[in-house]
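This follows on from our talk about sequence and fold. I would like you to pick a protein and set down its sequence and fold. Go ahead and set the record down below:
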Amino acid sequence: MKVVKNSFTLALGMAFLLQAIAPLVSGAVLFDPMIDKSDIALTMSNLAQHPFNAQLSIFLDIIAVMGILWLGVLLFTLLKKQNPVWAATGLAFYSLEAVMLMIGKIFGYALIHTSGIYLASSDAALLPLGQVLLQTDKFFSSMAMIPFGIGAILLYYLLLKSKALPTWLMVWGLLSVFPVLIGIPLIAYGVGIPFAVVFPYVPFEFFTGGYILIAGLREKPIV
């Protein structure tokens, strides 16, 4: 079976990696270490005292949103001949995910500036506002996993049918995305779901992006 490595496969592999790496660095490395779930005052103080990390986190999240849109467009281009309606629907759900994440970042940005005012004034009346902004940011990020999951299921199934990537890789993606679709929104509502349930999906996008960059796609993906 012919293997294709060109500018399209380069862009697709980079898109997978970009929208996987950017939120990981933004959350796990920059933003989350400043968050104390039990103490909003400490959280706001941390954000105000580390403005560069906080602002960089928002910037990387915006980059991640751009990566999601880029990936959606590339997958649509690759898969529209398989099923144009499903491919377009998958792109629409990816776009909805991006919009929801951007709305969440607006609240995250507001939290950073509210935290700066709190640190300067020590006004305890700002603490409830900070809590609402933080929870709203997290809520939109969690709920965005619903359109992401639906879009991913559609697009990964079309990838499976297209044979552009190995069957085992796409089966991994399809099986592991279901817990993300269901589990993360439930966690946002306080349901105690272990992180191990959603973890199998975490390395999938990194591995897929790396695989495409190294091995390319099977056959000619677009004419």
Summary: The chain has a mean pLDDT of 94. The chain has nine helices and two strands.
